[in-house]
Amino acid sequence: MPGVGIFQWDKVSEGTLRGCYAATRAARAVDDPDGPPISERRLREILTDKRGSERKEVWFASGAGGDADVLGWYRLKLPERENRDHGMLRLFVHPAHRRRGVGTELLRHAAGRAAQEGRSFLGAETFHGTAGSEFAAHAGARAGVLEARRVLDVAGLAPGKIAALRASATAAAAGYSLVSWTGRTPDEYVDGLAYVAEAMNDAPSDYEAEQWDAQRVREEVDASIEASANRVYTVVAIHDAIGQLAALTAVEVDPECADWGFQAGTMVARPHRGHRLGMLVKTAMLDWLATAEPALRRIETGNAAVNKHMIAINEELGFELVYPSVQEYVLPVKTVLGG
Q: Which domains, ranges and CATH numbers included, belong to the chain?
């Protein structure tokens, strides 16, 4: 790869940001042409995010020896709580520069950085059936959980459909009340949110279960909301008798792409399952968004392809399967470095 260098981006450089954004948009246009857009503001937040205990670094490949002419880039996250033997990799290569060794050099560089930090594996995801999954397989990565993507056509919902589903769920969820908020988690619900977040630990995953407490909610959930400047809507169900937060759903909207919403998570704590709480909070969310986000037309969600319960709820609501799916991969660092 003569004439191409790999450089660390350790400050906010507008030239690098524009180059990374151009590479990202071009890659998504090829790999996921019908999928949601990403704004430059959102990418800036991804690249400069320093929240939580994870260390993060961004490197880019350039043909001009500096900020201009970005051929591709990667972000490496180094978890400090669970999965401390992993580096979590996000890598993009501009389609015009694929199959020229750029991706291979970026991957090798990332593996080297991971090895220097004592990590044995790289975890990553890419769109299934695209150049990214072909690249991962060629590198020797093991395919993990396959996440099916679904999109709800909000504008095309039949009149009365959500109201009927909500009424049925409300009847099944007697003894639970709904609470909602925007943005940062109110103080009185931080511990409850941590409790419900533990519910995700029985979802299919290739990684160690995450342990949640109030501090982690503040450092990761709330700090992310504040850093992104997205509009984040949260609806929770509370068990009336004991005052315990039992279920949660959250949707975020990028103000620069306000016709798209992104499901940030739906979870029900195990002791409270079987009361249609997932359907209850999701229908309440759709009712709320109908007035709070009048420009919203579509909502994207993703579930492990084997998560039949949540998929059934989404399909009942009207979410339809879209392609490509998202494929997770785990790659031993020594495989990349030849050790």
A: 5-147+327-337 (3.40.630.30), 158-317 (3.40.630.30)
Q: Tokens for 279?
A: 């359907």
pTM for the whole structure: 0.91
Distance of CA 22 to the CA centre of its chain: 20
307 touches 294 (CB < 8 A): no
Q: Which residues contact 52 (CB under 8 A, 6 or more apart)?
A: 216, 219, 220, 223
User: CB–CB of 108/140 below 8 Å?
Assistant: no
Ranges of the chain whose pLDDT falls below 70: 1-3, 11-12, 51-53, 64-68, 203-204, 339
DSSP assignment string, 113-173: HHHHTT--EEEEEEETTSHHHHHHHHHTPEEEEEEEEEEEEGGGPPTTHHHHHHHHHHHHT
**If residue 267 lies in a helix (H) or strand (E), which one and from where to where?**
strand 260-268
Tell me the residue length of the chain. 339
Q: Residue 72 to residues 21, 48, 57, 89, 154: CA-CA distances in angstroms?
A: 10, 17, 14, 13, 35
Express each pLDDT in 241-258 by its tens digit.
Answer: 999 999 999 999 999 999
Nearest 5°: the CA angle 78, 81, 82 is 90
**249-263 b/e (C-beta count within 10 Å ≥ 16 → b):** bbbbbbeebeebbbb
248 close to 263: Cβ distance less than 8 angstroms: no
Q: What are phi and psi of 46, to 5 degrees?
A: -65, -45
Contacts for 265 with CB less than 8 Å, ≥ 6 apart: 200, 248, 249, 250
